[in-house]
Design goal:
The longest helix has 15 residues, at about 75-90. Helices cover about 65% and strands about 0% of the residues. It contains 5 helices and no strands. By secondary structure, it is mainly α. One of its GO terms (cellular component) is cytoplasm. It comes from Alloalcanivorax marinus.
Length: about 90
């Protein structure tokens, strides 16, 4: 049985859903996959890193998500790498 996210997490997730809307559908697919599958159970630090990721430009995220670059920030680079590994799994 899975537990419901806290009201604060649910509010944050709703806000982030709007921020996941992007001009590049390839970016949207990754962002929404993470948000729907992992956000509720991630740590506050991971949720905050996702919020920081949403502040980035679409073109940068597209490069990162397609393996053509990495974030300069080490913490964001680690989060993106982990997020991509998790989103790529099919469970």
């Amino acid at each position: 049985m899975t537990s419901s996210p806290s009201p604060e997490t649910a509010d944050l997730k709703r806000r982030y859903q709007w921020q996941c809307r992007r001009g590049a559908s390839e970016v949207e697919v990754v962002l929404y996959a993470y948000l729907e599958r992992f956000f509720d159970t991630d740590t506050p630090q991971q949720q905050a890193a996702f919020g920081r990721l949403l502040e980035c430009e679409d073109v940068d995220m597209l490069d990162w998500f397609t393996g053509h670059g990495q974030p300069e920030d080490p913490e964001l680079r680690e989060f993106v790498a982990g997020m991509l590994r998790r989103v790529a799994t099919t469970s």
